[in-house]
Every structure is written in C-alpha cells, then in structure tokens.
C-alpha cells in the first residue's frame, strides 16, 4: 500500500471516528443548528419541526427546490434508514405519552426528508415498522393507527410510496390513510421519492415479485441504522447483497443529527472516488 492510499484511509477513518464517537455528539448538534440557521438566513429554507403528514409551507418548498437545483455533492443518491431506538429514547427521558413517543420519531423523518430533498437525493427510504413489531405491546400499533387516522396531508411536490403488508393492521383506516398519502402524490415528479416501509420485512415481502406493494426492486446506495445495532433486521437484504453500503450510527433515532448524516455521505463519496 502506497503513502497516498494510507493518507486516504486515515482521512476516512478519522471522519468515521468523528461520526461515531459520543464525545463529538454536542459538536454534531451545534453544527446542525448552525447549518440550519445558515439555510434559513441565506437561502430562506426553514427546516420546521413538523411531521410528513401535516401541511407543508409552500414558500419553504419553493426555496428548497431552488437550492436543490444547485446541489451537487450528494445529487442522485438513494439513501435508506432503519429508524431504530425511538422507544429507548423515550424511555430514557421518561416520556410515557403514546403520541409524544411517535411524534419525536416522525419529526426526525421530516427533518431528514427535507435535507434529502434540498441536497439532491433521488430517494430516501424509512424502515418504520417491521412485521415482527406486531408481536410487541399494542401501544405502538395503536399509536400508529391513531396518528395516521387523524393526520392531514397537503402540498408536497414529490412522490410518497408505501411498502408493506398493510392488511396486517386490524383497522382498515390505517391502510386507507397511508394509501391516501400515496394517492395524492402519484402524479408528482419522479425526481424525488420518499419510501415508507410499514409492516414490512425482506424475506416475506420479496416473495411477491409481482406485487408492487410488497416487492421493492430498486437499488440503494447507503443504508443507515441508528442505535448502534449492527443487524439488518430483515430489511433490504437483497440490496445489501448487491453492493449497498451499510453504516451504523450509535445515536438513537431521534438523536441522529444532520451533521452525522452529511459527514457519513461525504465519507461514502470519498471512498467511492478514491477506491472504486
């Protein structure tokens, strides 16, 4: 191995250490706040604490679309997330309210979705609820039901796709509401898509190659899992086998920062440029 390669590996490992080391977490939070302020002050983009099911600010989307056109660093990426650690995060903070528990996870989905859009991603995917989660306490299932059935949806210029066996929900209202989100965006541009995986797992759903609701047949560049766990939990097994990069982040899902995301993607880009 030559000196140039050693330097490149050292840089990549240093970035990875900054991303994963808990001591750097306050710095990640500070950088995320500063970057959010920068977007707001200089580009008019306001990353709001809302959820993907609520009404969107049309002015903010116009500004975001303009910013997206000039974004090049991460343009065209397909990125996925295993959203792990939401319950542990709530437990550590003694949050017992059902809606509050799920809200914090949804806030993070919205934040990442907004940044994915402005940075030129082609798609972003979220593994929200696995089939095996139905065996857990019904509180989690009830929270999803109550939230989706009371949600509103307006104004998004991109597509939303729902994957999973929605028939497993005892309430038809859950499936109807989720499919309503998809229906309202079906005629939007394919330039950016948000994929939600709910009541899903790879082994079961990949059997149904002719069923668009179950079979996800797209490539993913990088798959993140929060909470520090290194298992795939039966998600995107075929994609990982086909070359998707798997990255674990020690932060629990609601604590995952945009700083960690952008540094991870920078590391991914540099690795592909230097060693592929």
Automatic annotation (TrEMBL):
GO terms for biological process: polyprenol biosynthetic process. It holds the Pfam family Prenyltransf. One of its GO terms (cellular component) is dehydrodolichyl diphosphate synthase complex. InterPro entries: UPP_synth-like (IPR001441), UPP_synth-like_sf (IPR036424). Keywords: Transferase. GO terms for molecular function: ditrans,polycis-polyprenyl diphosphate synthase [(2E,6E)-farnesyl diphosphate specific] activity. The keyword Transferase applies. PANTHER family: DEHYDRODOLICHYL DIPHOSPHATE SYNTHASE COMPLEX SUBUNIT SRT1 (PTHR10291:SF2), DEHYDRODOLICHYL DIPHOSPHATE SYNTHASE FAMILY MEMBER (PTHR10291). This is RER2. It comes from Enterospora canceri. The lineage of its organism: Eukaryota, Fungi, Fungi incertae sedis, Microsporidia, Enterocytozoonidae. The gene is RER2.
């Amino acid at each position: 191995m030559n000196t140039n390669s050693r330097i490149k590996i050292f840089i990549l490992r240093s970035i990875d250490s900054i991303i994963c080391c808990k001591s750097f977490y306050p710095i990640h939070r500070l950088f995320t706040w500063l970057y959010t302020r920068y977007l707001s002050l200089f580009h008019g983009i306001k990353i709001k604490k809302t959820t993907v099911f609520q009404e969107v600010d049309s002015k903010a989307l116009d500004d975001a679309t303009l910013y997206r056109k000039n974004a090049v660093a991460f343009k065209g990426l397909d990125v996925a997330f295993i959203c792990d650690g939401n319950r542990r995060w709530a437990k550590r903070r003694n949050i017992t309210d059902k809606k509050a528990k799920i809200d914090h996870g949804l806030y993070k989905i919205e934040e990442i979705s907004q940044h994915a859009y402005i940075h030129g991603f082609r798609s972003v995917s979220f593994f929200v609820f696995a089939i095996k989660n139905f065996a857990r306490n019904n509180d989690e299932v009830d929270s999803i039901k109550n939230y989706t059935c009371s949600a509103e949806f307006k104004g998004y210029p991109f597509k939303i796709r729902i994957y999973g066996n929605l028939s497993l929900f005892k309430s038809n209202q859950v499936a109807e509401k989720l499919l309503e989100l998809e229906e309202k965006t079906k005629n939007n541009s394919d330039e950016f898509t948000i994929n939600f995986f709910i009541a899903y797992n790879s082994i079961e759903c990949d059997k149904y190659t002719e069923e668009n609701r179950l079979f996800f047949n797209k490539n993913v560049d990088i798959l993140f899992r929060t909470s520090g766990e290194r298992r795939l939990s039966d998600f995107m097994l075929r994609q990982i086998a086909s070359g998707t990069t798997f990255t674990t982040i020690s932060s629990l899902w609601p604590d995952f920062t945009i700083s960690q995301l952008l540094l991870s993607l920078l590391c991914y880009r540099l690795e592909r440029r230097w060693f592929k």
